[in-house]
Amino acid sequence: MIGDSTLLDISVFPQRPEADDWAFVFAGRNTLTSLRGQPGVPWRLEEADALWHLNKELAVPIGYWEGKATWAFSIPEDSHTGVEALSGNLYSLLGRVDDALFHAHGRAYQLLHWRDTHQYCGRCGSPTSIIEHGRAVACGDCSTRVYPRISPCVIVLVSKGDKLLLAAAAGYQKRFYSTLAGFMEPGETCEQTVIREVREEVGIEVGNIRYFTSQPWPFPSQVMLGFFAEWQSGDIVPNPDEIEEAEWFDRSSLPPTPPNASISGQLIAHFLQAR
Ligand SMILES: [Zn+2]
Question: How far is the CA of 26 from the centre of ligand 1 (A)?
Answer without folding.
Answer: 29
